[in-house]
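re: ur question from yesterday

yeah so i grabbed the chain u mentioned. its 68 aa long if i counted rite. heres the sequnce exactly as i have it in my notes:
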Amino acid sequence: MRKKIVTIGNSTGITISPSELRALGLNAGDPVEVTVLGGVLEVKPVNKYEGLGLDELMNIVGSRRTRS
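ran it thru and got these structure tokens back, copy pasting raw so excuse formatting
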């Protein structure tokens, strides 16, 4: 799919449609890893749990548990 580079404030960017974001499992504000290799721009989702310790992960799991 062809896109245009657009001005966003003092920066430039490429817009991503809601369906493209859903396909990537991303939302606005999510961190991504951007690399350029051989003239190709690659954008990958960042694992939001990367770098968290076991205690932090257990707190997340505990806060999302539902009990009936």
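noticed a couple things. The radius of gyration is 17 Å. also The longest strand covers residues 32-37.
anyway ttyl
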